[in-house]
What does this fold into?
Amino acid sequence: MYHSLSGRGERGAISVSGALVRCIKEKTAAFSLTVLDAALPARCLVSDALVGAPGQISPAVWGRIQFIAPPVCAVCGAPQAFDAGAGAVCGSCAVRAPVYDAARAVFVYDDASRAMILNYKHGRRMDGVAAYAAWMARAGADVLGHCALIAPVPLHYTRLIRRRFNQSAILAQRVGALAGRPVAVDLLTRDRRTASQFGKNWRQRRRNVAGVFSVRPRWRARLRGAGVLLVDDVLTTGATVEACAKTLKANGAAQVFVITLARTVALRRPA
It folds into this structure.
């Protein structure tokens, strides 16, 4: 098995074994957190208010979340002020099309929704995962049909060890189960640890992730000519998913689509 994946003997075996160990640890941590969430009183995914069941948002908060609905840009998925017709793109995408083919998101990332993302990503709140995945599958229904593989944006192994789980990988697995599509959790690797993207503009973010990602050799044959769905938690400038999409297409992917739980609407790529 090791030779068939890497063709480099012992070195390949070590690489594959390490990936397997990380995968097992990630699933174990996620399961433990899910059990803990189920044992505690159900609380709002954003605030500390009690709710009727896990994965719910209190009525006071629900009205502040800006869920994204048509009309949206056919490419980047940003909400638009008016409906310009099927296939219409925003000005930013008309001037410079992103590397990925289309992106979709559930809600706007702003002051109202930020706590929901942080509670999941850093607070390890797993009680909302089922709802998040259902929302994402619905938001990306028009692109899911073009995808033969679903893959998360990967974390560097040092960050994965510290955080104990990849929030994007858990979402990808849930979306894949709902859509009936295979999930390649280890399709992409993050080969170099990078500084946080927080606080950087688009050009800085783009430089920060340039040449960071690669495709695992065992997926290359499956990737050729395939449509791939990338899953991440938040899309801001799009620099990270574009770097992933560039790597996937360089390795034979025909199309790359993106689904995120949230996206910003104020930050734009420079023309």
In short: The chain has one domain: 66-263. The first strand starts at residue 102 and ends at 108. The chain has twelve helices and six strands. The domain at 66-263 is CATH 3.40.50 (Rossmann fold).
